[in-house]
Amino acid sequence: MDFMGDRATLLETGRFVQPHAGNVADVTDVVGRADHVGNDVGADDGNVDAMETAGAEARHRRAAEAGDTAAMSVLGALLLRRGDLDGAEPYLRGATADGDRAAANNLGVLLHQRGYAEEAAGWWRIAAVAGSAAAAHALGRHFRERGDEPAAEYWLRQSAEQGHALGAYALADLLEHRSDVGAERWLRAAAEQGHREAAYRLARALERRAVEESRTGDEAGRLVRSEPVAEAGVSARAVRRSPSADGGRGVTLPGPRSGEAPMGGARAGAGSGVRGAGAARGDAARGAGASGAGGTGHVWQTDAALRTLADAEEAGRASAGAGADEPGRAGRRARPDGAAGPDTPGAGVGSPPPARSGLIDEAAQWYRQAAARGHRRAALHLGAILEKRGELKEAGRWYLTSAKDGEARAACALAFLLRDAGDEESAAVWWLRAAQDGDGNAANALGALHAARGEQQTAERWYRAAMDAGDVNGAYNLGLLCAAQDRTAQAEQWYRRAAYAGHREAANALAVLLLQAGDPVGAEPWFSKAAEAGSVDAAFNLGILHAGRDDDRTALSWYERAAAAGHTEAALQVGMALLRDGDEHGAERHLRCAAGGGSAEAAFRLATVLDARRPALGPPALGEPMAERSECEEWYERAAEQGHRRAQVRVGMLAAARGDMTDAARWYREAAEAGSRSGAFNLGLLLAREGSEREAALWWARAARAGHGRAALRLALLAARRGELAEGQRWCTRAVELGPAEVTERAARLREALLQELTA
Length: 760
Prior knowledge:
The protein has 37 helices and 2 strands. The protein is mostly helical and 760 residues long. 52% of the residues are buried. The N and C termini lie far apart (128 Å).
């Protein structure tokens, strides 16, 4: 190829200076290299540590005028660095004519600065063939700018293989552009020589690999987000089906949520924030005009804030040690763009697999190297990884470093970290600073703060600021704000705007509004778009929509999809469907998921499945200890503690069967006071056995009025024993009406007997 040369042959001519330790030409080569690449983003290279003194320059000038090649090269490099191109050119040309490769490289730099790119490339080629790594790098850059990638790769590889950090970085950049797996090797080579941008990009590559492994693995090590995450104030929960105590289905209105990811995968906004389907992140900020921050965005009490983070870190460790077995204790924190992601709602937060953890640890090391050299984005990502590990104070320090260097996302992440640690005042200042720098996530947090305080106008202003900053969550939160004020038309407008921009939860909320307005046909496409984009609520709502049309097969498919993503109520619906189909084991699996997610109805139905497998147990014999509680009783009790009336009654029955009448009476009373007719009836039976017939009659009367036939029959018998024949006949009539068949038959016989007694 005409752009390549035989380096050995040219060196043998003796025209070019052989590189050796201490050669002045090598020093000027470095000078020229640094000048040529001075505009590289993040370029860190060995520049000359100090400028030559005036006396030293004078000595070089005298030597150069006497014909000293090395002095001409050094003097030309110094003048070039100073910007004196006219003064540098004759010295560089003279040294180049004598075969100095550093002068040839620097002459190329000079000509390039004057706009003579082709002539510059010619001198770079001469210096590169003679062994100048800096010239090979410059020549590779020249060919890449002209679109000649093969030539660019050849010369950049020559530079990189000679240990030139900028050459290695430029080669890695070229290979990465082509998705060549060899890019990481050269990024590592440049990073090991102290190139901060290479260290940062190497860390990002390691994180991407960890993400890919987590996606193809078991999802247990979900450590990294490769896209931005937005945090907003509140969000719509959309249509929710809440099974009643008897398994019925109901629809609830939108509830609080945080900003969700847009359709298509990427989350809107930067900074970490709004956890995908989790609770709001911006509910504790202190916004503009609400604190002493004013409009300046000054940072207050930084040392105190970091002490707060240190205290929170210690408290978090103590809490983790005390409650390691408790589900749902892991906190969710702010995450910057592309950094370690927040805990996923409904998913366990465990330790990542060793391979992925090793990648993250290595990435953290490279982030630390780049951050220590002033790379603000590296400091941001390092802070996120440290925060994920629970090292809050150090994470805060790196966020602070990045924020002070002007990284708005770091300021926002620091604010969330401080808010979580209880320092809302400092958090508000950093949110304000980030919002003023154009961070939509921080503006959303401020909007959520003011909305929580009832300052609707201020909240709306910040949500609009978030929207203007390109954060689609701003429009979504404006919709939520309007919906909370019953401004339905405006809410629909903002939801629609966010939905068209790709916000999946806005699409879901828009569909809810349309459904509530009686337009299921218009709602279904938006539910579908949101569900296809990953909205679990939308998938569940589609199940409701199809179930309402008696399309149980399609409804079940959507429920299964939502359940697979951790939706508690969807798992309950799937479990109930499988129970109806006779698949008890499949039903048990889904019911356990739903019950573990907090569904009282699922806990009750799981308990009934387990209860049906238990052998019947009688009361303990005299002197025998009470039997231990079974698993089904524990699930009944979990449902009962959440107010499930049927579960309360069943817990009372099991306690009575074990001989624990005190516990039985307590649960019967709770159920009865909550309106359970069975609870009232059973409580009456217990009181009657204890001799409290009068109080028992009161509970039986409540049960009978609620439609309990056996309670009516008991009241009839009680009245008959007291001689209140007319009252007894009235309760007999009520028992006949209520049933069941056995009660109806007995009540009819008793009524006939009472009638005969009355007419005797």
